[in-house]
Amino acid sequence: SAQSPAVTEVVRAIGQTIASEAVIHVQGRSVAALADHELLVAGVGLMHQLKLNSFARSRALIEEAIRRAPRAAEAHAWLGEWYVTAVFNGWSTDRERDTQMAQDCTARALDIEPENSFCLTMDGVVSNNLLMRMDVASQRFDAALSRNPNEAMAWLSSSVLFAYRDDGAEAVARAETAIRRSPLDPFGYFFESLAATAYLSAEDYARTLELADRSLAKNDRHLSTLRVRICALHHLGRDAEARKAAAELMRRQPDFTVTNYRQNHPAADFKIGKNVVSALLAAGIH
């Protein structure tokens, strides 16, 4: 309710505290010393920090959660998301192997709970982002939303699918729906990052930049957000800022090339992908 700002702040603080306290609690403790409920919350929290050492630790925690509760479908789905993030953030040393691992994890999650909307969503993410099977991804997202219309991650992930297919209006509608479904999400930077991609597809570059900047202010280690920001700056005619952002991207991911983007990104052959490529080239990335 708009008339309850104090309640809103309390709820936001609770969500952020649960996430951050779990991460703090696991520091310096062995996996065996952690309670079952702490493992997955902390594992997901560390994964979203997007620091390489925290990211590696997050996998160990999620895998331990699975070892203790092998029938916990969502833990398998989160492990699949870990492999997706490893590939997309440039940390994978074997893209083909990690793609197969992601696929295996979400398939296992659906074997356990075929109707689970979150597991369907994560399987769709793997299909869209790594396998470039947009048809399969669309089926998974539709199935997730038919089972749970309030699944924020399904709205958010499907917005990316529509953005990649150059349907900017639908991408924006779905991204905004996702944010309304989870307005106080402790990982709000992720929602804003993917919403920026939706607005990029709609060629609303001012709104794209606004969302990218908001996301990066909360977490500046999500590299795809930097790419979106470069594209927005370029198309707004702010080329000096675009070049500065490109230099920052290359500092963080020195092996990134436009050639690799063209070969591996699911949107590379669509208009949005071509707009990104032109912006990257203009900003000095080759």
Mean pLDDT: 92
- Main sheet: strands, sense, barrel: none
The secondary structure category is mainly alpha
**What portion of the residues fall into strands of 2 or more residues?**
under 5%
* Series of secondary-structure elements, N-terminal to C-terminal: HHHHHHHHHHHHHHH
Proportion of helical residues: over 70%
Radius of gyration computed on alpha carbons? 18 Å
Q: Note the overall shape.
A: globular
Number of helices: 15
Low-confidence stretches: none
Q: Tally the beta strands.
A: 0
Q: Between the first and last Cα atoms, what is the distance in angstroms?
A: 48 Å
Summed up, what is this model?
The protein has helices at 5-26, 36-49, 52-68, 73-88, 95-112, 117-130, 134-147, 152-164, 168-181, 188-201, 205-218, 223-235, 239-252, 258-264, 271-282. With 286 residues, the chain is mostly helical. The longest helix has 22 residues, at 5-26.
Can you characterise this structure?
The N and C termini lie far apart (48 Å). It is globular, with a radius of gyration of 18 Å. The protein has 15 helices and no strands. It has 286 residues and is an all-alpha fold. Helix 8 (152-164) packs antiparallel against helix 9. Helix content is 76%, strand content 0%. The model has no long low-confidence stretch (mean pLDDT 92).
List descriptors:
15 helices, 76% helix, mainly alpha, 286 residues
Describe the SSE topology.
Blueprint: H1 5-26, H2 36-49, H3 52-68, H4 73-88, H5 95-112, H6 117-130, H7 134-147, H8 152-164, H9 168-181, H10 188-201, H11 205-218, H12 223-235, H13 239-252, H14 258-264, H15 271-282
Helix pairs in contact: 1-2, 2-3, 3-4, 4-5, 4-6, 5-6, 6-7, 6-8, 7-8, 8-9, 8-10, 9-10, 10-11, 10-12, 11-12, 12-13, 12-15
